[in-house]
Task: structure prediction
Amino acid sequence: MDRIEKLKEFLSKSPTDQFLQHALALEYIKIGDDAEARLLFEEILTKDPSYIGSYYHLGKLLERKGEMLLAKKWYEKGLSAAKSVNDIHAFNELKAAYDDLAD
Result:
């Protein structure tokens, strides 16, 4: 069974597990299915804005798609979320990605 099928199986048993959804989105990116990955990242962040790791990956996905303004907005939301929980590492990664877009 491939990773995507395995993750879907786990999600059928724990449909609200943000970690599993995030992992599934990353697997979709690996196979080039950015549309499905984007839906999952957006769903994660709508339901749980404190799931900080998804902001970076969603932003990068949007950059690849040429949606720079939207990527910037998601980075901004991520920066705010990371700051609110004092996650310095995530804040710095998001800030670097945000700053790269500002250049």
